[in-house]
Amino acid sequence: MEPSRRVKLINLSGIRKMFELVGEDSINLGLGEPDFDTPYHIIEAAKKALDEGFTHYTVNKGIIELRDAISTKLGKENRITANPESIIVTVGASEALHLALQALINEGDEVLIPDPGFVSYDASVKLAGGVSIPVRLKEEDGFRMTPERVLEKITPRTRAIILNSPSNPTGSVMKKKDVKVMAEIADDLGLAIISDEIYEKIIYDEKHYSPARFSENVITINGFSKSYAMTGFRIGYVTSTPNLIEEMLKVHQYVTACASSISQKAALAALEGPQDSINIMVNEFRRRRDLILRRLRSMGISCVKPQGAFYIFPKIKYPENFVADALKKGVVLVPGSACGIYGQDHVRLSYATSYEKIEEAMDRLENIYS
Ligand code: PMP
């Protein structure tokens, strides 16, 4: 059977391919999820949902209690006014991204994506019939997406700009003034911003600002995978203007009907319950970031200090060889080329693994690099 041209345009993620190579005593610095357990009160809420038979379809947009809680969170933490009717609970932020692009993009529309950036952006734009235009994020800018870099890439065909702060894979965080200017650009030129805020809470020395605070032309995407170590629950959400949400709802309805009822109850417990697990997790990530940064720099490797997420994106000579040599020593890394054409001189290391394992991994890498 001949597959469609559309799917043939995209490839399986280079990151997933690396995982197939993980051996018994390997240390995996390729992971894109917190190594922490999901907080127990969240697990209990899921168990309770099962015990109470909350195992059926929910309304398409998601249970109203959860959308209410998300609306309150967005108002308090992000200064976004989002009516619960303008929120869709999705199967992870991944689905939210798909909905946003499906609802927004016409054949041939250009979407500016951060490069290096999250692997799904390019693929999701192509699946929507769009053309992804990489915006090169430079080491000298701390890998931050700046209005100058974005303006250089805007053409009459540009329809949307994807922002991802804090960023996967670089850990960069956008400045408030840049977020504001980006919102102004969207308003002035009639463009949409798709803001992927999945790492908003995993942030160290800076503050997170949501563009939807400054403009209506924004689709905000977020989820529970990273902040609450809930990747397997597959739960996220999207909010935007009522008209666009109605369009996204059609896609959501036909693709998934609704997010898992059990996961929705768990997500509600995450928002309503104690938030201290986030601080504990972030403090530990900060300790590991400092370790990995110190060790890589002491090997003479140039690295931008990550301000958020749990990745570091150092510049490496012959990165493909480095990744292969690291693998022989039992350390799994992701080649930067998996994160876009401008990632090719880099590798991505995730510090979502224990402090001790990172120390051991750094000892092994030191042997290769010296
Ligand atoms: N956005 C970014 C930047 C990510 O790194 C990820 C997960 N790796 C996602 C979105 C998707 O997260 P999920 O679907 O688990 O909510």
Characterization of this structure:
The protein folds into two domains: 128 residues, Alpha-Beta Complex (Aspartate Aminotransferase, domain 1); 233 residues, Type I PLP-dependent aspartate aminotransferase-like (Major domain) (Aspartate Aminotransferase, domain 2, 3-Layer(aba) Sandwich), CATH 3.40.640. Helix 3 packs antiparallel against helix 10, helix 5 runs parallel beside helix 6 and helix 11 packs parallel to helix 13. Helix content is 42%, strand content 14%. The strands form three sheets. It has a seven-stranded mixed sheet with strand order 2-8-7-6-5-3-4, sandwiched between helices. The chain has a three-stranded antiparallel sheet with strand order 9-12-11. A two-stranded parallel ribbon has the order 1-10. The model has no long low-confidence stretch (mean pLDDT 95). The N and C termini lie far apart (51 Å). 4'-deoxy-4'-aminopyridoxal-5'-phosphate binds next to helix 5.
